[in-house]
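Question: does this match?
>
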Amino acid sequence: MGFPVGYTELFLPKLFLQTLSLLGFIRKLISCLFSLLGLGDFLEPDIVWPDDPTHVPQFHSVSALLIREILPVVKFSECAVGEGDPPESCAVCLYEFEGEDEIRRLTNCRHIFHRSCLDRWMDCDQKTCPLCRTPFIPDDMQEAFNERLWAASGIPEFYGEYSPITGL
């Protein structure tokens, strides 16, 4: 068996594509006419791609920024002094630590990572250790962290006197 010769469902997509092509041609024609008449400023500009495609603006969540404030950055050489037996490599990137590497030591589980590795982990909205999944924020600091997060969100100004922060 097979498809009948006059299969009508194939005709509709072909007609749709031809209509889109015609509309694209008309748009390009109008754009050229406006440019020739000096009226190009009245048209919406096309998408302009950046010259440097590797530079992408970074947007960090408020919680990631607050966690970065809580977790200090130190040099690996400073961390290794008096700390028993520190790990030899970062568990995220697997590169060995060197003396001048900037690291972050997690306060709950005491694991250490390169600063950039842990920052990228937090940028993915992760709030736990990549190794053991212990929360970044210790339990005794969780309430203060939540208050700072609430205040930084801008919601207290929206709710005014009914805000949980101002009602404390």
